[in-house]
């Protein structure tokens, strides 16, 4: 969409985390450095790029020798090898542009139109045309 100069307005889903006594570090607490292609943890240690998995996520892994002596390790990860893995989708840059557009006044106005245009069509299809459930053939 961005290559065709179309700015998308995606729906927002609130992050779902279980409450704990001391808040864990979220992914947003780790800062991405595009120039060096790495993440910086809240304790200012580097998580370099490691690999790309089959789902299209780039994995950035911390050094376990540094992390095992970290004072906030319990907030960062619960892994036994003391390693934090942060993932970043291949298209995350485009998703960031869409996320920034959602906060503009034009993006907010377009998001309000969703309920009148797109969501209404799905609701009508479900209610009047029996498309509430998917019919399956075979097993």
Describe this structure in words.
- The structure is a single chain.
- The chain is of the alpha+beta class and 139 residues long.
- It has a domain at 19-91.
- Helices cover 28% and strands 17% of the residues.
- It is built from five helices and five strands.
- Strands 1-2-3-4-5 form a five-stranded antiparallel sheet, with no helix packed on it.
- A hairpin with a 4-residue loop joins strand 3 (46-52) and strand 4.
- The longest helix has 11 residues, at 92-102.
- The chain is elongated.
- The relative contact order is 0.14.
- The mean pLDDT is 89.
Q: What is the tally of beta strands?
A: 5
The coarse silhouette is elongated
Structural class: alpha+beta
Largest sheet: 5 strands, antiparallel
Task: Report how far the terminal alpha carbons are from each other.
Answer: 37 Å
Written as H for each helix and E for each strand, in order along the chain, the element string is: EEEEHHEHHH
As residue ranges, the low-confidence spans are: none
Strand content: 15-25%
Cross-sheet strand order for the largest sheet? 1-2-3-4-5
Helix content: 25-40%
Task: Compute the CA-based radius of gyration.
Answer: 21 Å
The number of helices is 5
Mean pLDDT: 89
């Amino acid at each position: 969409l961005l290559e065709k100069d179309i700015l998308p307005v995606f729906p927002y889903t609130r992050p779902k985390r279980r409450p704990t006594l001391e808040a864990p570090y979220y992914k947003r607490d780790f800062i991405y450095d595009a120039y060096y292609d790495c993440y910086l943890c809240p304790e200012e240690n580097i998580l370099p790029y490691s690999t790309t998995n089959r789902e299209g996520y780039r994995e950035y892994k911390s050094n376990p020798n540094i992390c095992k002596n970290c004072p906030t390790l319990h907030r960062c990860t619960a892994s036994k090898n003391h390693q934090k893995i942060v993932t970043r989708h291949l298209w995350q840059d485009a998703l960031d542009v869409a996320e920034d557009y959602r906060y503009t006044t034009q993006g907010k106005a377009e998001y309000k139109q969703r309920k009148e245009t797109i969501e209404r069509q799905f609701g009508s299809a479900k209610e009047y045309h029996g498309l509430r459930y998917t019919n399956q053939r075979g097993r």
